[in-house]
Amino acid sequence: MKKLLTFITAIIVVSATAQNNQLTHPATYVETVLDATTLLTLSQEFSVDKVTRNADGTFNTRICLSYKDFDSFLAKDIPFTTMQQIRANVQMAYNYEAMTANWNRYPTYSTYTAMMDTFRTRYPNLCAIDTILSSTPGGHKILCAHISNNLNDNEGKPSLFYTSTIHGDEVVGYYMMLRLINLLLTNYNTDTYITELVNNVDIWICPLHNPDGTYYTSDDQINSSPISIRHNLHGEDLNRSFPLAGQTIAKPNYEPEVEAMMQFMEAHNFTLTANLHGGAEVFNYPWDSWPSWQHSHADADWWEYVGHNFADTCHEYSTYYMWDENNGVTEGGDWYVITGSMQDYHNWYLGTRHVTIEVSDYKVVSTSQVGSYWNAAYHSLLNFIAEAENGIHGTVTDSITGEPLQALVYIANHDLDHSYVETTLPHGDYHRPIKAGQYSVTYSADGYLPKTIVTTIADGEKLVQNVQLSKSVGIPEYDKIVKIYPNPAQDFITVELSDNTAIDCISLYDIQGRLVETFPETPLQSTKLDVRNLPAGTYILHIATTCDYEIIRKIHVF
Fold first, then answer.
1. What is the 3-state secondary structure (H, E, C) of 471-489?
2. Which of 102, 184, 219, 346 shows its CA 20 to 30 Å from the CA of 493?
3. Cα dihedral: 228, 234, 240, 242 (round 10)
C-alpha cells in the first residue's frame, strides 16, 4: 500500500543534538536510536510513536513531543533528528454530498457533524447519534453512531464498539469509520452479510475521539502535524492518559476526552472493542503495559487467532498492506511498552476485549489514495464485528422466577487480570469470546448456589449456554445473609453472616485464580481478614457456610 502514495513534499530531516533549537511547533516528531533500557524509560515519559528493531539490538524510535515535553526531553541530552512531516495531497469536503460522491476527500468539521446527523435522519430506524462529550476544550463534539435493527433494546445481543483517531493527526481511521457507518446503513436489507451483522450485533462507532487535535489549525483543514496534531488542546497524549493497568489509585483529574470516554465505556458492557490508529500497519493486542514474556493476557491465543484472521484477510485484498511486526500482528508490549493506553484500561478495569489496530503506515494519506486503504481493510473491519458473535453466550436467570441475574462468569485455570465477564441487565446476558478448547465455566450470583459447567468450543463457533441458578430453601435475600466491609480495604475486611448461618471456611483467590490464603474457622457469624500484606488489586472471596451453600464476592485491596 505504501508504494502507491504520492505527496506534495518530501520528508526533510534536520540533523540535531540535544541543544537543537528547532522544536518550535505545538507537536514535533523526533527520531533517535535507543537501547532497550533507554527505550523503556522514555516510553513511560514521552509519546513514543513507532519503533523498529535493528540487527544490533538497538531500536529506531520516533517520538512525538508536545510543547509541554520539549524542555524535559532536551534535558535528557539524547542525540536526535527532527523531522518535518509529510504533507499529503488533501482535498476537503465541505458538505455531505461532496464527501460521499466518490469518497476521495476528508470532511471539514461541519461536514463531519452534518454527516452524522444525516445518517440519523436518513436511517431513523437503524441509526441514532449519541454524544460522548458535548464540548471539548476546543469547542468540538465527540459523537458516536449507534447502529442496530432495534435501537431501543439490544435484546441481549453482543455489542461492538469502534473508535478512531485518539491521536488527532492519525486520520485514515477517521475516514474508514465514516465509510463503515455508511456501508452498514446503505447496504442493510440488500447485502445478506451486513444485514445479519446489524441484526445480530449491537454496533457503536465513534469516528473521531480527538477533534481538537484533528482540527487544530482550522475546522476546514486536515493534514500532517502541525496542521493536525497528535495531542489534545492541552498538549496531552490521550492514549497515555487513561488509568494505569495493574494499579487501583486513580488520578485526581483526567483529560475531558478521556473522562468522557471512560464514562461512556463504563455505561455500556461492550463485548468487543477496537481503536484505530495510524503510523503503522499492525493488529496490536493487549497488553501495552508489559511484554508477553513478562505478563501475558489470559486470551493471548485468542487474540493471535483473531489478529491473524484480520491481517490475513487484508492480505487477500492487498499484497502491500498490514505486514508490520509478525505478519501484521503483535502483542503491544512486545512491540514497545507504553502505559496509560485506552486498550489496557478497557481490558484491565472493564473486562472488555479491546484491541488497537494501526490501519496505515502514514498518518495522513493523500485523498486520491485513501480509498485504496479502505478497499484493503473493510472486509476485515466487518469480520471483526462478526467476532463478537463467536464464543460462549447465553443468559443467567433465577431457576424459579426466570428473572435475569447480575452474575459473574468465571473460567477456572484460565481467567486472570479481569478477563472474566459479567452478565448485563435487563436481559441477564453474557458474551465470552474465547479460543477453541474445553473450559470449566462457573456461574455465580449474590444469594445463589454457583453452577459449574464443562463445555467445549471451536474456533469461529457460537455456543449458547443458558444457565439457571437456584436459591436454597430458607435462604433469605443476599444482602441479609452477608456483609463485607470495608470494600475496598487497606488493612482488615470484616465478613459477617446472618443469625441463621455461619462461616465454615473462607478462601481468597487472586484475580489469576490462584489460591492466596485459606481461613479455616470454627463456625462463626463474623470474622476479620487481615489484608495488610496483600498487594493492591482485586481478589475473589469464596465463603463456604454451614448451610452448604457458597458465597462468591469480589473485594478490592489498596
1. CCCCCCCHHHHEEEECCCE
2. 346
3. -120
Write the pLDDT tens digit of every residue in 454-483. 999 999 999 999 999 988 544 444 445 678
Question: DSSP 3-state assignment of 538?
Answer: strand
Nearest-angstrom CA–CA distance, 443 and 422? 9
Q: What is the chain's Cα-based Rg? A: 25
Instruction: Render pLDDT for 34-62 as a digit per residue (tens, 0 to 9).
Output: 999 999 889 888 989 889 889 998 999 99
Query: pTM (2 decimals)?
Result: 0.82
Q: What is the pLDDT of residue 385?
A: 98
Element (H, E) at 438: strand 437-445
Record the cell numbers describing residue 215, joined without a space: 482540527
* Dist CA 347 CA 343 (whole Å): 6
Q: What is the pLDDT of residue 374?
A: 98
For 196, the enclosing helix (H) or strand (E) is helix 192-200
**b/e map of 68-94 (b: 16 or more CB within 10 Å)?**
ebbeebbeeebebebbbbbbbebebbe
* Complete domains list, the chain, with CATH: 2-84 (3.30.70), 92-387 (3.40.630.10), 391-469 (2.60.40.1120), 478-557 (2.60.40.3080)
Give the three-class secondary structure for 63: strand
Report the DSSP beta bridge partners of residue 483: 496
Q: What is the pLDDT of residue 8?
A: 33
Residue 1 has pLDDT above 70, yes or no: no
181 to 120, 174, 318: CA distances (angstroms): 11, 11, 22
DSSP character string of 317-331: H-TTSS-HHHHTEEE
User: 358, 330 in Cβ contact below 8 A?
Assistant: no
